[in-house]
Amino acid sequence: MNIGMILDKEFYGDMRVENEVQALSSAGFNVFVYCFTFNGDYKEDNYYGATIVNIPVNRKFIRKLRALTNTILNFYPDYLVKLIKDYLTRDKIDALHIHDLYLFEVGLKLKNKFPHIKLVGDLHENYVEGLKSYKFANTFPGNILISINKWEKKEKEWCGKFDYLITVIDEAVERYKSIGIPEKKLTVVANYVNPENFLSAKDDVKIIDEMKQKFTLLYIGGFDIHRGLESVVKAVPRILETVEDFHLVLVGRGKNENDLKNIAKELNILQHITFEGFKPATKLPSYIKGSSVCIIPHLKTVHTDNTIPHKLFHYMILEKPVVATNCNPIERIVKEADCGLIYESDNENELAEKVIMLYKNKNLQKQLGANGKKAVERKYNWNVTSENLIKMYKTI
Hints:
The protein has 396 residues and is an alpha/beta fold. 47% of the residues lie in helices and 18% in strands. The chain is built from 19 helices and 14 strands. The strands form two sheets. The protein has an eight-stranded mixed β-sheet, with helices on both faces. The longest helix is centred in the C-terminal third of the chain and has 17 residues, at 362-378. The radius of gyration is 21 Å and the shape is globular.
């Protein structure tokens, strides 16, 4: 079987997509990934036997078009169809694997041209609920052009027309069933860590040593309102009352980075926070190894109650205690694995209490970290969940 994947960004660095491609290719499927390159010419790479088709585009142009998806200025699907359709003929594609809800219309338009193709939708997140938090959808002109009601209708319509759907966590299955999607269409392929790949990165001794000089709280991921980072910054003054050598390290970037810096300035704590910016995946293990405690501060919403972040399992496999909010899947797994402490979403005082508790109890830190690693080795790893992906494709 020839599988075509559509990804409207660069391939390398998206751990979920890389893991899926590796698993399917290793299982004997012919995989072709149609993705973008923002700083280069057209080229085709070999990745574990899969063909990565890198199509050169302008990053800013793509971002603007993407933001207008499902609005009155909905030019993006037709643009992508024009870019990709000839490859489907060349590569004799049997199934199209579409990453993210906002690209589903592209899949449906391509199926009109290639009726024999089966459509597989990979729902990385609850995109419609995410729009309620994303800054581009809540500031001008997005707040005028983007209709949540229209997106809710399209989500149900598009998901209903796809042959197979993939979600990242069990809780999401229940949500899609609640909007009328048959359970037989749904497969869970979780964002669990691929130990073979993640642990292969070479240690950056400088990063590890610098972070170990202080009691470091680490966050890795995107910056946006639903990530809950405001509460983390606001918790710093209270933590400093007890933990004099405390330091917060934020690895990533996003729309509200300046807002976070402004809060830190107002609280006069900017010297206790490091904004590291975006870092390649190969550097992430070093940041985790150098940290004392790792955090997932996501705000509890319908969006975050139906998804699970990679970073939880990255933290766990490297034996770091986790402090996380009470989003349903995160709380369930942290408690089941006994790998961390849960606090109420957006409650900086309770967050500070949990961090201070760990600071005062080194044995607890060590025990929670060890529990997390054992849970990943036993259950929360890519080798386990990828079997669901392979099994689904074998039924097509």
